[in-house]
Amino acid sequence: MAKIAFILLCHKDPDAIIRQAERLTASGDCVAIHFDARAPVEAYQKIREALADRADVTFAARRAKCGWGEWSLVRATLNAVEAAVEAFPDATHFYMLSGDCAPVKSAAYAHAFLDAADRDYIESFDFFASDWIKTGLKRERLVYRHVVNERTQKRLFYGMMALQRRLGLERRIPADIQVMIGSQWWCLRRRTIEAILDFIRQRPDVVRFFRTTWIPDETFFQTLVRHLVPDREIASRSLTFKMFSDYGMPVTFYNDQYDLLISQDDLFARKISPEAVALKDRLAALWDSGRTDFTVGQEGPKLHAFLTGRGRIGRRFGTRFWERESTLGPDRELFMIVCKKWHVAKRMLHAAEDRLAIRGIEYLFDEDACPVPHLGGIERTLEKRNRHRRALMRMLFDYYGTDRLMICLDPANIDLMRDFMSDRANARILELQCVFDDQYLVGHARRVGLATEKTPDEVIQRMLPTLRHEFDDQSVRIREAEFQNHWRLREGRSTAENAAVLSSCFDMDPDTGYALAETPYLFSD
Q1: Which residues pair with 192 in a beta bridge?
Q2: Per-residue b or e along 200-213, where b marks 16 or more CB atoms closer than 10 Å to that residue's CB
Q3: CB under 8 Å to 224, separation ≥6 — which residues?
Q4: Burial annotation 463-493 (CB, 10 A radius, 16+ → b, else e)
Q5: What confidence tens digit (pLDDT) does each residue in 354-403 have?
Q6: Residue pair 32/56 in contact by the 8 Å Cβ criterion
Q7: Cα distance between residue 85 and residue 197, in whole Å
Q8: pLDDT tens across 488-507, in order?
């Protein structure tokens, strides 16, 4: 049966590292620790003393001072790997982890998974042909020598690269090496690790080359594994679940994401928030549980893309350049009917059109198919509508020859609400707060592509808390914005209460407000 030697790279929080080592070894596995030499000596000594008597824990013989993007990270990994190879002769697999990682399956499941196929698990894509690098330096990482850190000595880093370019000092990649790239979080078999260590001793020229490349932890092991191991024995994937935000930053996981994490087709996940103590405890208990009945899927990245795609959370205090000289007009009124259930907002909009004679437009900033009159091209795409939002609304006021308009908005579009509420026009928000039952959430997941009719019910049920939390959070963000003209209509509230809200929002008489509150099937699905 598989026995895993975890290669644990860490640099902080000695108490958490001690707990992590104890939890990982409780299953019969072992751990080799490299603790950054930049960290306080007292922190390292605390770890050494706490784990000193454990035969299933070892330490790198030499500690490297690690810097992001530097060879020192590879050196630290190799130091820990060498210690693990010597200390644990019965280890069959070597698994890279950081102090921010945690298991998302049981040890029994992980061992069975590794026993099922004789493979190495490491992302390994062609450096030049793949699009693994999305932005920043690519070819320059390899052909120029990098001896300072871009993050700490930015001017010197780019100055030295420019000087090499001017002097024609590009270097050649070793002729027999095809450089590969991928995540540093890998799981390799013992014979692969031993082959890498032998290769390093035999080919100092390759080591010298990678020592002065930029971000070699994404290329060194990835290249050597592909050079030494037949393709059929490599699964070009990581077994550690990780995601990145649209800013390129690692996504951090919190206490309420347990169900999301354990449903992924991975063995570990990073990064777990230091504050997510409850999540860490639950995942530690899961590792020891012996459980093997996991329903796995790939909805994690889709769910994160869905959440971030609904609008970035943030504050924007500056005015966009096209808005500096623009306003909807101080004498105009804009009513924003905000609701996550689009059909509910549309019912309210059309009922208000009939009773109040106010022109209404549906989700023109959220729904590409929303009918919008021809306005010279500014209306053609959602991207254009949102980018030129004030100009578009001015043109719509002029097109319809009115000073009163209603539009529907998704609650995620809070940046647009901020723009319009800061305008000199009389802008108002009418938020329709609905109840979201499981049936609606399942339907929503299918409508937005998070699930299909074939998605297992267990997987869908794990999505529902995340979706419900996201919907609730959007309403909280609107409330926290403290808009002055903000009214809330609530499902489940009495007709009289909702009528009073409508009368106040639209400045209409109580009878008309009551009739509008009685709109047939307003909150029905």
Answers
A1: none
A2: beebeebbebbbeb
A3: 196, 199, 206
A4: bbebbeebbeebbeebeeeebeebbbbeeee
A5: 999 899 999 999 888 898 888 878 888 888 888 888 888 988 998 899 99
A6: no
A7: 10
A8: 999 999 999 999 999 999 99
